[in-house]
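Researcher: Next entry in the queue.
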Amino acid sequence: MFTEGDNTAASGVLIAAALHLKARGEPLWPESSLTPERLARYYPQEGWRVAWRGDVAVGCLCLLDTDPLFWPEDAANEALYLHKLAVHPDARGQGWSALLLREAVREAAERGRPWLKLDTATARPRLRAIYEDFGFQNVGQRTVKGFDVTLYRLPT
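Model: Structure for this entry, 156 residues:
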């Protein structure tokens, strides 16, 4: 089951995922940037999608209508932009990433967007493999605010 607009539940999933990655020596996001208040600065409440197993939030992502920081050349309504995909460490390996990605593709198509686009850290091959295995096309790299990212798109 999915809910929309719950950045508090998303924050819990993101912090758990960030701490898990940090413990593995693969830090991704500083936990201080994942509080509901900080998330609200950059990601609108209505963009959040949270996946639930019973009453436990197990995954999340945020969908944006525009993404001029990473995709400045895109025309209006060209794509829906995916950010902050995360699965709670206790739910890893159970297909939640694919389920969340399918939901994002479904919503992009429903909203008439020809593409679902995202960026991810170039230096994270396992994360990039998730997107590539799902069918996203690598369309290039760029450096944004000092971070090397790889850009991906998927037709909807």
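Model: DSSP finds four helices and seven strands in the chain.
Researcher: Noted, moving on.
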